[in-house]
Amino acid sequence: MTRDTNAQTRFQTATLGYPRIGKSRELKKALEAFWRGQSNAETLIQTQHEIELSHWQTQQNAGIDRIGIGDMSLYDHVLDWSIYLGIIPERFAAFSGLERYFAMARGNEGIPALEMTKWFDTNYHYLVPEIPEHLQPADFSDFLATVRRAQDQLGDRAVPIILGPVTLLRLSRFEMNQSQAASELCDRYVQLLQELKELGVAEVQIHEPALVFGDAANFKENYQATYQSLSQIGLAIQLVTYFDDLGDNYSWVMELPVAGVSLDFTRGRNLELLQQYGFPEDKQLGAGLVDARNIWKIRPDVLQSTLDIITGVTTNLRLQPSASLQFVPYDAQRERKLPEPLLQVLSFAEQKLEELQLLATHLRQPQEAETSLEAIRGQWQAFQDFSPVNQGVQERLQRLSSQDLERPLPYEQRLQQQPVLPPFPTTTIGSFPQTSDVRKLRVKLKRGDLSQAEYEAAIDAEIAKCIQFQDEAGLDVLVHGEFERTDMVEFFGQQLSGFAFTEYAWVQSYGSRCVRPPIIYGDVARTQAMTVREFKVAQSLTDKIVKGMLTGPVTMINWSFTRTDISRREQAMQIALALRDEVADLEAAGAKMVQIDEPALREGLPLKPERWDEYLSWAVDAFRLSAAIAQPQTQIHTHMCYSEFGDIIEHIERLDADVLSIENSRSNNETLFEITDAGYKNQVGNGVYDVHSPAVPATEQMVQQLKTGVANLPVSQIWVNPDCGLKTRSWDEVIPSLKNMVEAAKVLRQEV
Ligand code: GLN
Ligand code: ZN
């Protein structure tokens, strides 16, 4: 590698966005107070600006050379861009200002919100732009005001972040003709760049993550034409891509008329592509080296080999996180309850800023970084000693054969040994209302106001109430109600070794909603039965069948921060082994049915369709490993909500679950028909009741839905259930709703 005299300025650091919710979730609190009418717009905006300023200062103090700004949002950055660009659907025409903003985000008196969906393969959700027939005028004043504030604070370190025009189009729905929309929007982006130039901005980041989609080539001309127009303004454009590699599009993307291209080197094969095709001499490489999607510190030796390859190709580079840091929490050092060796290898946003600076120092003056890098190596070593390989788990995994993934008999033969129920058997998905009284029990237990025995007695009283209600309502297959569970992943993670839980590590899921994903840090093993006690209590209270209730391995993986030293597949298989033992214990305790929920199975699909099979293959294997221990007469259920199945149906079949319950009430039977059209043979739990609405579904409405279902599926294949668990509903809603549902099943039994 050649070093030049510019080494001091050459290896600069840049960020691509920061968390938004506030270090102590200040934005969440401010939003919720505003929505409740307990504060006003001014206070809300002031809070937003204060949080934003603190982010800028943190990045400035960390020494970041180019700080991405303008990504702070009251609800969602994609919504912000819809509004700046005048992409306002007709139905919001009567609103303005914040009222319109939140109407688009959350709906307003019968006017539905924009649709919300997953942001690429992250657990963040954005609002889908709806491009109406006629755009409203663009209005960049809020964005420009942010830029001015940032310039005051950061000078020319401030680099505006712009959501890319082609990505925005790619994610939108259209009423307008698509090519007309492309050209109208392009004009507006040109206008924006002009206005930024007038403010003295020299450089912008334009984020085009859609360039990593498998279908990016279909938009090639659009990218070329758009960036041709944008390049005319004379700003330095940093074209930012992330979440995966550029694949076959690498070569033409490198030729776009921009000053720099950012690549994610933590996912996909960008490093190979760089080696193979090189990097244009006239462009700067934004090297996404620090993983913005996971919470681990850098591993100096792994990173060194990546750096060697990159610097062998170009030294005109910047050191960056792989994407916006919005996907990680703020500060690992705030955690007080994690074991020290684990804490020392965690890196949240603030630690990642330090890592960027360290890498820059390392490239500029290697000897100056050596002490810090050596310290990190030592921390990883200490962590390894603290969390050694679990030999027992490793040996079990090695001994596994394909037999272990196979139920003892095929479905048709199992069916004959399984419980006989009336046609249209009714059941629920597992959880019943988590009332504040139930949640208080856990607080009291934690504080020591309740002993373990007192806590369990109180939970058992809830179970008893729940069983009695289900019995009286006439449901056929009962559940214990999941009162002992905070969250379907956390509950299991807390009982498994290898999982850690944080106090403050919140990340935004959407709007004001945050999640605190568990951290899988070591080999996962079960130390004792996790659900058997509550199952037994429930089953002892009724002659009807009570389903055992577990969270599946794939969902646990997809809703956690996972290890990077072993594959996700291996981690899923370890969890599956633990669940396998739990299934066996439940069976031994008398369970005739066990449900293994996998609501997040589809969420884990890779961005590039060519990698779907690889993912689904291990994901389905992990599910099968957990379920296959069951005797033929034990009925295995699974549940997946808000999913589409059409394009992955052969994998759903390979799960080999006896009963699959799905959300179906909001899709107008779409979801059900996807399954039946594909010729799915096993039983399907037809979700007939929307658990996200407080409305009590009428019997007649559920009867109608079931009838259309019957027209497409033999009666023997159909179960009747709500779309999902009932934990967010109140008993007042649940009681009449389930009674109506049972009534609907009875109507069908008579008519069909
Ligand atoms: N058994 C879980 C429940 O009822 C399933 C939740 C889910 O699908 N997200 O709460
Ligand atoms: Zn669900």
From TrEMBL:
Active site: 692
Pfam families, A to Z: Meth_synt_1 (PF08267), Meth_synt_2 (PF01717)
Keyword Metal-binding: yes
Binding site for 5-methyltetrahydropteroyltri-L-glutamate: 25-28, 118, 513-514, 559, 603
UniProt xrefs under SUPFAM superfamilies: UROD/MetE-like
Binding site for Zn(2+): 639, 641, 663, 724
UniProt organism field: Phormidium yuhuli AB48
Entry annotated with the keyword Transcription regulation: no
Cofactor: Zn(2+)
Positions annotated to bind L-homocysteine: 429-431, 482, 597
Domain Cobalamin-independent methionine synthase MetE C-terminal/archaeal: 424-746
Cofactor note: Binds 1 zinc ion per subunit.
Residue numbers binding L-methionine: 429-431, 482, 597
Record function comment: Catalyzes the transfer of a methyl group from 5-methyltetrahydrofolate to homocysteine resulting in methionine formation.
Domain Cobalamin-independent methionine synthase MetE N-terminal stretches: 13-307
Pathway(s) where this gene product acts: Amino-acid biosynthesis; L-methionine biosynthesis via de novo pathway; L-methionine from L-homocysteine (MetE route): step 1/1
Name of the protein in its database record: 5-methyltetrahydropteroyltriglutamate--homocysteine methyltransferase
The enzyme's E.C. designation: 2.1.1.14
Assigned protein family: Belongs to the vitamin-B12 independent methionine synthase family.
Lineage, broadest ranks: Bacteria, Bacillati, Cyanobacteriota, Cyanophyceae, Oscillatoriophycideae
Top-level division of the source organism's lineage: Bacteria
Catalytic activity: 5-methyltetrahydropteroyltri-L-glutamate + L-homocysteine = tetrahydropteroyltri-L-glutamate + L-methionine
GO terms (BP aspect): methylation
An MF annotation (GO) of this entry: 5-methyltetrahydropteroyltriglutamate-homocysteine S-methyltransferase activity
Record key words, sorted: Amino-acid biosynthesis, Metal-binding, Methionine biosynthesis, Methyltransferase, Repeat, Transferase, Zinc
